[in-house]
Amino acid sequence: MVLKVSARGQVPPFIVMDVMRAAAERAAGGADVLHLEVGQPATGAPQAVIAAAQAALARDILGYTDALGIPSLRQAIARHYRDRHDIDLDPERVVVTTGSSGAFLLAFLAAFDAGDRVGLATPAYPAYRNILSALDLRPVALEAGAADRYQATLDLVRRSPEPLDGLIVASPANPTGTMLRPEELAAIATHCEASGIRLVSDEIYHGITYGALEATALASSDEAIVINSFSKYFSMTGWRLGWMVVPKRLLRAVECLAQNFFISPPALPQHAAVVAFQCRDELDRNVARYRENRALLLEKLPEAGFDRLAPADGAFYLYADIAHLTNDSQDFCRRMLADIGVAVTPGIDFDRARGHHTLRISFAGSTDTMAEAARRLRSWRR
Ligand SMILES: Cc1ncc(COP(=O)(O)O)c(C=O)c1O
């Protein structure tokens, strides 16, 4: 008897993970591989976070914590909104999660019912669509172009092909790095609240910007769900810790879901992350490196034929339109890895309809890696 595999479990792969595996296999075989596919800092956690983790290991039994997170961390996160955004946030509204990935699961379950339609600009971080589908929610693609800076502008939201129950925005965004201006985000948040659309604002790349102003949806709406993480600016991807700020009315639902799904977020990273907000000098040095990498690639990539790039306002990605080079980005990236050992991510991970002629380059690695990748790409394309 062949037993069934559920239809909702059949989500597409997260292609960047497949690229990472192919790159790792080549590296294991002795090849010199440059990793421009991974969307994670090449640095570890800040020193003070590591010291706090060591102290917690020595001191604490590290049992389950409160399902919503330890009070000291929820308070530190609330203080962060006071310090960075001048927003008075009740720590009760802060929910600590297993990465922002855990926050999406809880947020979508708490805010939406099966069949609800949730809009998102494409190209987009693929897990939004895939988590929504696995939960029997309906992702509604708002096809964004260069003129929209690849963002879910208010105009695109208003012209959605289907009525929306929810909307996901990300600023800065993955894969494009583009941002919504503070007044644009405010207008979207106000529109959503007035129209009964639950806004989910993914603010995971906050802190990694290159001159543009970053805003939080919390400034404009108490009905928005704001999601963030220690993975990117805080350089703690593997610690699997994130947070969200939820409207009061959703809090109990989120708490009950979190209790049942996870019991609690992991204890050790929580104790360590309490001091993460005091490590800005160290973390801003990482951002200075991303800024240098970005400038280097913006100068060198056009020499290799990659000259149609989305404006990378923030995050650590360049999204390149390569329609003049290929109409099969997956094959193009495979050849790039095989020929010159440079791993990048094909655009179809982010945009099933148009990603066959785009790719994403991550500049989260070292400046030496970026310089060498640019050199190899130039000679490959000659
Ligand atoms: C836009 C965006 N949101 C969320 C995530 C998930 O991050 P994490 O679960 O590590 O917080 C990522 C990871 O790359 C991302 O790019």
Walk me through this protein's architecture:
This protein has 382 residues and is of the alpha/beta class. The protein is built from 12 helices and 12 strands. The chain has a 7-stranded mixed beta sheet with strand order 2-8-7-6-5-3-4, sandwiched between helices. Strands 9-12-11 form a 3-stranded antiparallel beta sheet. The protein is globular and about 60 Å long. The structure holds pyridoxal-5'-phosphate. Residues 39, 99-101, 125, 170, 174, 202, 204, 229, 231, 237, 242 line the site of pyridoxal-5'-phosphate. Pyridoxal-5'-phosphate (PLP) is lined by residues 39, 99-101, 125, 170, 174, 202, 204, 229, 231, 237, 242.
- Described by the principal axes of the CA atoms, the overall outline is globular
Report the sheet with the most strands, covering strand number, pairing sense and barrel closure: 7 strands, mixed
How many β-strand stretches? Answer: 12
Order of helices and strands: HEHHEHEHEHEHEEEHHHEHEEEH
Which features would summarize this protein structure in a list?
alpha/beta; globular; binds pyridoxal-5'-phosphate
Any chance you could write out the topology, listing elements then pairs?
Blueprint: H1 15-28, E1 34-35, H2 47-59, H3 71-85, E2 94-97, H4 99-111, E3 117-122, H5 126-134, E4 138-143, H6 154-158, E5 166-170, H7 182-195, E6 198-202, E7 225-229, E8 242-245, H8 248-262, H9 267-273, H10 280-300, E9 317-321, H11 329-340, E10 342-343, E11 345-346, E12 358-362, H12 367-381
Helix pairs in contact: 2-9, 4-5, 4-8, 10-12
Pyridoxal-5'-phosphate binds next to helix 4.
